[in-house]
Structure formats: structure tokens, C-alpha cells
Amino acid sequence: MFSRKDLECLDPRYFEIIYMDDRDVTIMSRNTRHMWYIHNPEYPLPGSCIIFHKHKVSHPYHQHGRSNTLRQAVRSIKSHDKWQLGGRKIAN
Fold it and tell me: How far apart are CA 38 and CA 54, in angstroms?
């Protein structure tokens, strides 16, 4: 389960927080507008998180990866944002 301290890593300046409780977090990156759903089933081990991702609200989620902590999942999301923003080519 996510503790209150775990949930503090969700910076509202970086993420629009859609939903959060002790097992689920849904956020949108303010940089890429991508949606993220992080689930903590505590199975097979306490603290394991499953990270789901979608590019648009209307799209279905796909599994992006796993992390041991919510803080680690947030680092992964920020890294993905950096890659996404750096990889886009601007049309002339």
C-alpha cells in the first residue's frame, strides 16, 4: 500500500493528480499530457508497483513497467517524459 509519505512524491506542479488512494494513483504529466496509472497490489511482494501508460485519454492503457516504490515509478515517468520531449522532431 502507498503511505502518505509515498504519495508526497507526486508534485502537483509536475503532475495533474486525477486520483489517488492507498493502492492506486492516476496522474497526467503536465509536460507530455500522457496519462499514468500506478497500481500497488502488494503481491507478490509489498511495495511492488505496476506502471500503466497511455498517450491520450481516449486510448487504452498498456503496461509500461514495474517499480519497487512509487518514488521509483515517478522517476521512471519523468525519465520517459524527458525522452519523449527530446525525441520529438519539430516540423518546419
Answer: 12
Picking from 40, 52, 50, the residue whose alpha carbon sits closest to that of residue 2 is: 40
Three-state secondary-structure class, residue 72: helix
User: What's 34's DSSP letter?
Assistant: -
Distance CA 22, CA 7 (A): 9
- Digit-coded pLDDT (tens) for 37-76: 999 998 667 678 999 999 999 999 999 999 999 999 999 9
For 68-87, the pLDDT digits (tens) are 999 999 999 999 999 999 86
Locate cell 503496461: which residue? 63
Residue 88 CB: number of other CB atoms within 10 A? 9
Q: Which residue type occupies 72?
A: Q
